[in-house]
Design goal:
By secondary structure, this protein is of the alpha/beta class. The protein has 10 helices and 12 strands. The strands form 3 sheets. The protein has a 7-stranded mixed β-sheet, sandwiched between helices. It has a 3-stranded mixed β-sheet with strand order 4-9-10. A two-stranded antiparallel sheet has the order 7-8. A hairpin with a 2-residue loop joins strand 9 and strand 10. The chain starts with a helix and ends with a helix.
Amino acid sequence: MPTVRENGFEGELYIGDGTKDMVMIVMSGSNGGMSITRTEALFYHKNGIPSLALALFKTKQTGEFLDRVPVEYVENAIKWLKEQGFQRIGIDGMSKGSEMALLSASMFSELSCVIARVPSYFVSEGLSGKGKSKGPSGTSCWSYKGKELSYAPYNQRAFDMLKMFREERELHIIRFNRDKNVTPETIIPVENIKAPILLLSSKNDEVWPSYESSLYIEDRLKKNGFEYKVKHVAYDHMSHAMITKVPLGIRLVFKSERRHPKECKTERNEMKKELLDWVRAI
């Protein structure tokens, strides 16, 4: 598998049906590591679509925290995949990974397919620390060529997660993610993307306002005369965990998954079809 030292990124390639017409770069969010990323890449693989699970942080080869993660990881992955003979390269990011997906696609025209699950339309401050000490890093999530990208900081400088769980009975960190000072330089220039864009949002998002972000992205693209196809699918019940395979503990984390299990299951199956249909149609 590719290494940061030799290839400029860390990833796991799954060959799908063995063809090299299309491959998807897949990234998860602020959970870090490779567990969810690998699962989502395997979803494509099992449906015949080659995929690359791309590590962003919290692995042996990457940084410990979601802090100044190099956008070069995607740039180098694109280069490597082209060297392997893949003709078209798509990207699928969830949550924080959606920031990286949209940002990368706005910078690298080689990407021919973009999927942003529960997206944000701007770059946020990074996160560092563990347990009770986890909080805003004072730096950007992302960097390029050694420089931090402009970011919107958190208004609160410490997160009382225990208080949040006592009051909300779920991972309700949308209280930390609203009303940030989003300045023009922190907004991802999605109009620079040279590929069709699929936005998947939740009207019941407990982590950040992905539905409103998706509406903003749609409007920005329209105002800039975006010439590629754009589709926005908004779900009513599914939580921020917009993943194809749900861990057993997810209902403990999100109330909607507990209260509306049948609806969430139905929407998740619909999402799977949207993902596959979008990639296969490109």
